[in-house]
Design brief:
Number of strands: 11
Radius of gyration: 23 Å
Number of helices: 8
CATH topology of the largest domain: Rossmann fold
Low-confidence stretches: none
Distance between the termini: 16 Å
Mean pLDDT: 93
CATH class of the largest domain: Alpha Beta
Oligomer: single chain
Strand content: 15-25%
Length: 269
């Protein structure tokens, strides 16, 4: 689950109270899992418990509860009477919340964010951080150039200037998924080499992805072998990056493909 919606909720509570609607229990088939939530305010809704008539009914109920009352739980059978055919039974929990509840909500709702290190502030990098901003990642965005980063970035992205760029690799958090797409092939090579050295020392970078073609990776393999890296070590690098079969080269297409590959890497970990 992305923490973007948690961030949005905490900001919205500064404007007024809300009712937190969460999936408390599910029997049989339901649209969302236990723990899924949405926040309902007078004029907006943040996040989703699965959409459809269940969600519409829950929004109406939440707005009725905004006029007063404590936490309560409601049972919904997902059959023809509700206009849904999941067939299961869902129990929803309704909790009025205010700005005073923000610290507890932040601790309760925020999901662990997987660290991602993105090397390169070019067109693909800029498209990619927008996608990663909606996903369960905490992104360190690194470039050797001054003033390459945009004025505003998603809440889960931290910009870091590093010259030389590979000097940032030793300080990456353990378990970081690394994406290498700088403006320079020389920088890309140095970053990949630094990641491979870190794997030798700590073996704590589960994914190293390099943007480019098969011919670029063939050239890099040869140069990295000259630096003493073995075939087994080089097999830890994914290049080209992105899901096979998605061939578009527009930055936005590459960004979606790469983000999907990261999610696959999480699922298989």
């Amino acid at each position: 689950m992305s923490n973007l919606h948690v961030h949005q909720l905490l900001q919205a509570l500064k404007r007024g109270p809300a009712v937190l609607v969460s999936v408390h229990d599910v029997h049989g088939s339901g649209p969302r899992e236990v723990g899924a939530w949405m926040a309902v305010m007078a004029g907006e809704v943040i996040n989703t418990i699965g959409g459809g008539h269940l969600e519409f009914r829950a929004i109406d109920e939440a707005r009725r509860l905004m006029d007063g009352g404590g936490a309560t739980t409601r049972r919904y059978a997902l059959g023809p009477s509700l206009g849904q055919c999941c067939g299961g039974v869902v129990h929803l929990r309704y909790e009025p919340v205010t700005l005073a509840d923000a610290p507890v909500l932040a601790q309760r709702l925020q999901a662990p964010a997987v660290p991602v290190a993105l090397f390169g502030g070019g067109h693909v990098g800029q498209a990619l951080v927008q996608v990663l901003g909606t996903l369960p990642f905490s992104v360190t965005w690194v470039d050797s150039r001054d003033q390459v980063f945009p004025a505003t970035v998603p809440f889960n992205v931290t910009c870091e200037h590093s010259d030389p760029v590979q000097a940032a690799v030793p300080g990456l958090p353990p378990g970081a998924l690394v994406l290498v797409m700088s403006f320079s092939h020389a920088e890309d090579l140095d970053v990949v080499a630094a990641c491979l050295r870190r794997l030798r020392e700590r073996n704590d970078l589960p994914y190293i992805g390099l943007i480019g073609s098969k011919s670029k990776w063939a050239t890099f393999r040869h140069r990295l072998e000259e630096r003493g890296f073995t075939s087994a070590e080089l097999a830890r690098v994914t290049s080209p990056i992105g899901l096979p079969g998605i061939t578009g080269k527009q930055p936005e297409v590459i960004a979606v493909s790469v983000a999907a590959q990261l999610l696959q890497a999480l699922a298989s970990a």
